Amino acid sequence: MLITYTAILKTKKEIAPRVFHLQFSYPTDVNWSYQSGQYMIFHLPSLENEHPIRRLYSIASAPSQKNSLDFIIEIVPGGIGSSYIENMNEGDSITMQGPAGIFTLKTSDRDIVMLATGTGIAPMYSMIQEISNSKNQNPNIYLFWGLKYGKDIYLKQELDKLADENPNFQYSICLSREEKNIDDARCLKGRVTKGLENLTTDDLRPTTDFDYYLCGSPHVVESLRSDLEAKCVP
């Protein structure tokens, strides 16, 4: 069931070039819950008519976080929704509807591989937090996150903390266009598929051994899906 309410922008911070972390508070009397991986529908005012523009943004916070939602949003130059988000100030209100989406964690005993690019990290970050906070026996999680350059990296301290505290979680940031050497064992040059190749080669495990979660721009996700299908991943 979708719930519509007014949320207030609590904090807004640019965490990488044209990438913002936003936290919204919602009324304490709103009785709802969501699953990691789901998204919210933002209703943004239109400059052209009275009908609002709808934009979908994945929730980056874990369900255990109460009374607020976090989002990681890239500002696309010229984008109507992006322009509105970029000009929002702390204390501004916005109409949200949700939660929605079926991109959620599935019940499985298999280890998990997450392949994300850009702000596609948002739902993955929510999932990783949820699994790490669980008292159940957790599967191994391998995150490969694709960015272009070292300057594009964010969430580094948060991911390091999760990896240091949870031996079942490992991650690599894959920089597709970086030419400089990055002095960090958790960063490598190449596409996210290079990280996957390193995983299966080092551990001598077939690519069919894992459950896969993909998130990013549509053409990148389709490319990753094709790569996995070529490796006989159903």
TrEMBL record:
Domain of life: Bacteria
Domain annotation FAD-binding FR-type: ranges: 2-106
Example GO molecular function: oxidoreductase activity
Pfam families in alphabetical order: FAD_binding_6 (PF00970), NAD_binding_1 (PF00175)
PANTHER family (alphabetical): NADH OXIDOREDUCTASE HCR, PROTEIN RFBI
Protein name, UniProt field: FAD-binding FR-type domain-containing protein
Origin species: Candidatus Roizmanbacteria bacterium CG_4_9_14_0_2_um_filter_39_13
Taxonomic lineage of the native organism: Bacteria, Candidatus Roizmaniibacteriota
